[in-house]
Amino acid sequence: MTENVEGAVTALYHADWGKIVAAIIRAVGDFDVAEEAAQSAFEAAIEQWPTSGVPEHPRAWLVQTARHRAIDRLRREKVLAKKLETYALTEAEEGADPRDLDPDAIPDDRLRLLFTCCHPALALESQVALTLRTLGGLETDEIARAFLVPPATMAQRLVRAKKKIATAKIPYSVPNRDDMPERLDAVLTVVYLVFTEGYSATRGAPLLRTDLCNDAIALARMLRHLLAPSPPAEVTGLLALMQLHHARRKARTDEHGDVVLLEDQNRAMWHRSEIDETLPLVDEALRGDVGPYVLQAAIASVHCRATTKEETDWRRILSLYDALERLHPSPVVALNRAVAVAMADGPRAGLEIIDALATSGELGEYHLLHAARADLLRRIGDTSEASRSYERALSLVENESERRFLERRLREMRAAR
Asked: Which of 336, 318, 237 is nearest to 279 (CA)?
């Protein structure tokens, strides 16, 4: 019974953390109080549900419990009256489903929280980090990985962001439509980073966290609908990019949960109906103001249009990466372009670029750089140097699925030597 309850609570945490925190922030207007109350509600579920059973509406139970805990904390801090007046909390509301019934409002608490966290008074990196923590429930080290910074640095950024909201009295409120464009870049970044964490989890046993992938795709769909009838091309491009990647989910791991590289995936396992539904979105986005997400969606579409790995148009992919690097230069883009160069012009050409990136030190703690370098060295037969790069990648990787893949490759290199 206890194991079943723990499984149910874990599933709810992954699926509903952002919804619950968003509802409590909206009720009490305080990020720290909301996060603490939500965490306390989940702890209460673990303690009580083995005896009382999982309630019929577990998320509503968690929201109500978290609201009670938040009110208790506010009462202890002797500001309850002010908070109740400000946010119109009443006992009658405590059983209500937390949602905004205004038809002109943003249609989901998570999307409302996105725009609220992405306030222009905060630095862009703080906007993104705070939303990932509050909405996605990501831990500090998971967010740090997305920014390629140490966890301690990210922890400080989160503290500063929350302090800025409190001291500057930044309201938890929905921006009007005129104010949305200046927050759009940060919102898109957050949505994509939530998806990225789901697509390749920082740590733990599974490679994929489909709950985060589905949440990010749902948010992008709502955002595109919100900005209809003429959503920006980057919004459409981001939605297409995520859907095309997600359409390959079943082929990305084998029966043991180990990573399967794109070139080795069984394309019959790709969700072709999802791909066919999404490819027109890529074409639509390419007719608009092309930005980084549109270009990445176009790259994903080239992969998805190829029925075999031999049919992949690597020249087209390389030209799109060239455009992406001109428009949005970054070490990670350069690394991905290097892989495309290797596929189009041979592994030595790609290895030259990766070695230059390694020398620069910008991606020194990024395990995928060392894994990519090891793979190209493997392809040219340098098993000794490939082994060293695999060892370096293994010293940095935290996800167990990726670890097992790298360990297998390392064993192959050692056996070949």
From this structure: 237
For 321, other C-beta atoms within 10 Å of its C-beta total 22
Alpha-helix runs per DSSP H in 118-232: 124-136, 140-147, 151-167, 181-199, 210-226
Nearest CA to 403 among 202, 198, 199, 213? 202
Q: How many other C-beta atoms are found inside a 10 Å radius of the C-beta of residue 235? A: 26
The pLDDT of 336-354, averaged and rounded, is: 97
- Tell me how far CA of residue 201 lies from CA of 56, 331, 398, in angstroms: 30, 20, 9
Q: Is residue 102's pLDDT more than 60?
A: no
Cβ atoms of residues 341 and 332 within 8 Å: no
> 10 Å Cβ neighbour count for 340?
21
For the stretch 357-404, pLDDT in tens is 999 988 999 999 999 999 999 999 999 999 999 999 999 998 889 999
DSSP run (H or E) holding 308: none
The residues, ordered by sequence, that sit 6+ positions from 22 with a Cβ below 8 Å of its Cβ are: 109, 110, 112, 113, 134, 135
Name beta bridge partners: 259: 253
Among the listed residues 96, 91, 101, 112, the one whose alpha carbon sits nearest the alpha carbon of residue 25: 112
What pLDDT is stored for residue 178 in this prediction?
77
Determine the Cα–Cα distance for residues 119 and 126; give it in Å rounded to an integer: 10
Please report the DSSP string for 37-97 in residue order: HHHHHHHHHHHHHHHH---SSHHHHHHHHHHHHHHHHHHHTT-HHHHHHHHT--GGGGGS-
Q: Cβ contacts of residue 180 below 8 Å, gap of 6+?
A: 115, 227
Which residue type sits at 222?
M
Token duo for residue 394: 């293994």
- CA quadruple 336, 338, 344, 346: dihedral positive or negative? negative
Name the band, by pLDDT with cuts 50, 70 and 90, for residue 338. Answer: very high
Residues in a beta bridge with 11: none
Most confident stretch, 58-67, 150-159, 224-233, 272-281: 272-281
Query: Would you state the pLDDT for residue 107?
Result: 52
Q: Distance of alpha carbon 195 from its chain centroid, rounded?
A: 3
Is it the case that residue 246 has pLDDT exceeding 80? yes
Exposed (0-12), middle (13-18) or buried (19+): which is 160, by Cβ within 10 Å?
middle
61 within 8 A of 55, measured Cβ to Cβ: yes
